[in-house]
Give the backbone structure.
Amino acid sequence: MIVTIDGPAGSGKSTVARLLAARLGVAHLDTGAMYRAVTVAGLRRGIDLADEAALSRLAGEVRIDLVRDGDGLRVLVDDEDVTAAIRENDVSRRTFHAASNEGVRSVLVEAQRRIGRQWGSLVTEGRDQGTVVFPTADVKFYLDASAEERARRRHRELVQRGKEAAVASILEELRQRDASDRNRKVGPLRAAEDAVVVDTTRMTIDEVVDALMRHVRRAGGA
Ligand code: C5P
């Protein structure tokens, strides 16, 4: 049973994917963490992230492991724990290099399909899961929300972690990431034709998870 959840940054997909996977009793695959992990590996090795050939080679060389840890996932690159490092702002800003790199994408898409075969059942989230990686998934979702609401959510998250940031600058960064995710040539962000589109702007996380569960049940998956 494969459920895909795609959508832009701040649409709520990570939290929703984790909760939905827990409710269904299946694994959760965070594919954004893999693009972030390649970025961290590149930065650690002093590679120019804009050097497409070098970054693509690196993606083929490093081993990325996603390890279940309680409710969450730990991310390892060649056995080094980079779970915290991949969430740094600088990494969020620079991951577009890995995301728009054709070679990196083909390595990661293949790795994701392999994980799909190994795990059998999973809820996977990203930008291209329903369109490219798992086109025959049992249920596909596309989560969206207004850019303003997504910026407010990011802001709240940062404040909760004791960090300061202006909503306006978060909004600006989100818009840039949206544009880069939607306009790249390989694996662009878009809803699959057979995806259920959910606008989460005025919904709580629980409401979103309930709505998705109803669709999964209807599809015979729970
Ligand atoms: O979802 P998250 O914000 O962690 O993803 C980090 C970056 O990785 C995104 O900005 C996006 O460009 C890229 N990504 C991707 N394809 C995926 C998942 C993430 O290009 N399947």
